[in-house]
Specification:
The chain is α+β, with helices and mostly antiparallel strands and 83 residues long. α1 packs antiparallel against α2. The protein starts with a helix and ends with a helix. It is elongated, with a radius of gyration of 17 Å. It is built from 2 helices and 2 strands; from the N terminus they run αββα. Strands 1-2 form a two-stranded antiparallel ribbon. The protein has one domain.
């Protein structure tokens, strides 16, 4: 299989997996009790809200799990199904 096809396949898998991850991150944010948190102004149009340590931990764990899933799926499909 050619490089561009592998690239497109891996990109598609990554987008699908991380879209699901983004929905989980969104749910984490929506379910969090509203409390004061740190804000950082980036340029004039963007304000970053820094989550507390419990939220950061949930986000990092979710990111690690979905990174592993994406890597395993891509490796599995390329190794066993694409020659």
């Amino acid at each position: 299989m050619s490089f561009p096809v592998k690239f497109i396949l891996i990109t598609f898998i990554t987008v699908c997996v991380f879209f699901i991850e983004s929905l989980i991150h969104f749910s984490i944010g929506k379910s969090t009790v509203i409390q004061p948190h740190k804000k950082i102004n980036v340029f004039n149009m963007l304000i970053l809200h820094i989550p507390d340590k419990d939220e950061i931990f949930k986000i990092i764990v979710t990111l690690i799990i979905f990174s592993l899933i994406s890597g395993l799926l891509s490796s599995f499909i390329i190794h066993y199904h694409i020659n």
